[in-house]
Amino acid sequence: MTSLINDAALSTDSYNGKKLPSLLDDSYLLEKLEELSLSVENSNDIKPLDASVDESLEESNVERYSKYARYIDQLNSNIEEYKVVLTQTKTVSDQVIKIINNFEDISKDTNEFINDTNQLHGEYIKVSKLHEAIPEFLQYFESLDPIMRRLKHATSANIVRKDSFKTLMVNIEQSLQFLDEHTDFKDYDSYRIKFKQCLIRGCELIANYLKNLLRHSYNDVYDMIKRNVNDESSGSREALIYIKFATIAEEFMSQITELAGRSNNKNLERYSNEINSILNDCYNEYFHTRWRLLNSAIHTRLNEFDSANTGDLSLIKFIQDTKTYFQQLCLDEYRLYIQFFPEKYCKPSINMWFLSLCEPFYDSCTSRILREKDITALCDALTLFSKYYEFEEGSEEYLKHFKEVQFDKVFQPIVQTLQQRLIFRAQQYVDREIVQYTPTIDSFMITNRKTAPNGSKPLDFENDSILKAYIDGFSNNTMDTDEIENKETLTSREIELEKCESFYPPLIKAIALLSKIYEMIHTVVFDDLAHHIVHDCVLSLKNAYVMVVASTSDAGSNKLDMDLAYLKNLLLLREQIENFNIEYTVTETYLDFSAVESFFRTIREGAKFKRSEYSVLSLARDLVPKVVNNMVDARYELMQELRNIIKNFTEAASKDIVRETFKFLPGDKGESLIAKNVELRSNIEDRLPRIFNQISTFIDDDGIVVHLMEAIQEVVVHSYSEFFKSISDRQKAGEFDNLDISELMDIAVFSDFFETITKKLISSQNEKDQNVI
C-alpha cells in the first residue's frame, strides 16, 4: 500500500494521461494473496465453504478494502485536478511562446531602426562637415580668377620680388595639392590644368627675372672690362669676372631657390618636368653668361701655354700646365656657382657644364696627342691623371675626394684620347718590332747578341724610350735608392743590359711594352693586346728557331745551345706574362677568303671548269667569304711550345750522351758489347757535366735546371733499359755469353750511377752559388 502511494505521488509531476495501476500492482496486496494461495495449496484438509462462511468473508473483505477504495477514489479525484492544472499550464506555455516571438520581432525592428538611425546620423555628420568645409573649399576655387588675372597682366618680371607674388605662388601650390587630394570634385581636371598653367607662368616669371639679372650683370662686367682693356693685370680682370659678378648672387639665390625647391617638391612631382625645363633654362643662361666672360681669357692662356711648351717634352708639359689651369678654373667656377645656386639641388648641373667649359682644353690636348708618336710620353701623360681614378665611383673615399668638382669626369675625355692613341701606337710598335721582325742566324747565340751583322745594336736601350724605361725601372726596383748615383749601380745596370741582350730582341721589346702600358688602359683592352703580343712573340720565336736550326749543319752541342736559348726565351715570356694577370683566351673573328684565293689560283694554273660541275649560283655561293670565330688561348700555345722544346732538348741531350753505344750489328761479339758499355759510362762522366754547364749558362732557375737534368736521366735510363732487355733476349738466343752479360751494369745500378753524377753536379753548383752570395 505504501509503495503504491509512493508510486502515485512520484508520477504526479510527470503524468501524461496514462491509465491507473491495477490492484495487482500493489506489492503488499500481492504478497498477501501469494501467502493465501500457498496456504490453500498446502492445506491437506480442504473443506468447502458454506454460505455463512462466504458471507463472513465478503463482510470482512468489504471492511478491509473500503479504505483502499476510498484512497483510489481520492487518487482519481486528484488526477482529474492534475489534468486541469496541466491543461492550464499548456495554455500558459503557449501564451509565453507567443509573447517571446513577439519580443523577437520587436527586437529585430528595434535593430533595424538603430542601424537606420546610425546611417542617418553618419550622413548628417558628413553633410554637417561638408557644410562647414564648403567655405574653406570655395576659397581654392575662388582664388583662381584673381591669380590668373594678376599673372596675365604681369608686364614686368620684377613682380617676383614682391611678397604678394610669393604668397600667390604658395596659394597656387596649395590649390594644386588640394585638387590632387580631391579628385572626385566636379570639373577637377579643368581646375587642375588652370592652376598648373598659373604655376608654370609664375615659374617663367621667376626665370625671366633671373635671366634679366644675369644679362644686366654681364653687361656691367663686360663694359668694365672693355674700359680697362689696356690694363694687363690678371688680378683686376679676375676681380671683375668673379667679385663684381658675385654681387647679384644673394638676390639670384633667393629666387632660384624657389624654383629648385618646387622642382624637388614631392607634392609637385607631377609637374616636375615643366619646372625642370624652366630651371634648366636658368642653368643654361648662367653657364652661357659665364662662358662669354671666360672665353677670351681661356683662349689667351691656352695660346700662352702652346707657345711656351715646345720640344721633346711638349706634350707632357703642355698637358700638365693646362690641366693645372683648368683644375683651378673649375674650382673657382664651382665656388662662384654655389653662391648663385643651392648646392643641395644643383650640384650635378655644374659638373656637367665643366665638360663644355673644358672643350678648348680637350681640343688643344687632342691635337697634340694625335701628333705624339712616343709611347713613353703617352704613358707619362696618362700618369698625370692616375690620381683621379684611384677610388671606385660612389665609394666613401670617392665622395670625400671629389666633394666639390668631379675631376675624374672632367678629365675623362683627355684620358680616353690618350688611351686610344696609346693603343694605336702600341699596335704599330708590335707590328714593327715583333710581327715584321726578321730574325738572323745568330738570334739565339749569346756571344753574338751585342751587335747585329750590319753593326747596329738589336736592342737600342738609349734611343728606344720603351726599352730605356724598362731597364731603368728594373734596375731601380732591384736596388736601394742610396745606390742610384753610385758606380755599383751603373755596373748593375750594365749587367742587366747584358742579360736583356742575351734574349730574343722582339721578346724583350714585347715585355718592355707590356710593362709600360700595364694599368694605363682598360683591363679588357690590355688583355686582348697582351694576348696578341704573346701569340706574336711565340710565333716569331718559333720561326727564328726553325730558321736557325735549318741553317746550322752542326747537330751537336750547337743544337743544344739553340734549344736552350729557345727554352730560355719561352721561360722568360711565361715568367713575365704571369705578372700581368692576363685573361689569355679570346675570340678572334675574321673573314676566310681561302675559297676566292683557290678559285683565282685555279684560273691562273689554266684549269677548266665543267658546266655540269659548276653553275653561276654555286660558284657565287662558294666564293662568298666565310666568317670564322676562332677561340685562341695564348697560354696553351706557350705551354705547348715549352713542352715541345723540353722534349726536343732532352732527346738531343740523351743522343749526345749515348751516341752509338746502343747500336750492335748482328756480327758484333761480347768484346764490342763491353767496350761500348765502357764508352757509355765514359760519355756520361764526360758529357753530362758539359751539358749541365750548358743548361746552367742559359737557365738561371735552379728548379728548372734540376727538372731538365731529371728529364735527361729519365730518357737515358729508359733507353738503357730497352737496350739491356734486347741484349738479354739476344743472350737467351745464344748470341752472347753469360760472362759478357755479367759485365754490363744492371738497370738499377745504371740508374743509380747516372743519378749520383747528376746530384753531384747540382750540389756543386749550389755550393758555388752560395759562395758567390
What does this protein structure show overall?
With 773 residues, this protein is mainly alpha-helical. Among the domains are: 468-477 and 486-636, no CATH class; 659-772. 74% of the residues lie in helices and 2% in strands. The chain is built from 28 helices and 2 strands. The chain has helices spanning 2-10, 27-42, 51-142, 144-152, 163-181, 188-227, 234-244, 249-263, 272-308, 314-340, 343-357, 359-371, 375-383, 396-401, 407-410, 412-435, 465-477, 487-501, 505-517, 523-551, 557-577, 594-604, 616-623, 634-658, 670-698, 702-732, 738-742, 747-772; strands at residues 585-592, 626-633. A two-stranded antiparallel ribbon has the order 1-2. The radius of gyration is 59 Å and the shape is flat. The relative contact order is 0.03. It is a peripheral membrane protein. Residues 239-596 form the Conserved oligomeric Golgi complex subunit 3 C-terminal domain. This is Conserved oligomeric Golgi complex subunit 3.
Spans where pLDDT lies below 50 across 5 or more residues: 1-20, 43-49, 446-456, 476-490, 588-593, 608-617, 626-632
| Strand percentage | under 5%
Average pLDDT score: 78
The structure class reads mainly alpha
Strand order in the largest sheet: 1-2
Q: Assign a percent range to the helix content.
A: over 70%
Number of strands: 2
Radius of gyration: 59 Å
Shape: flat
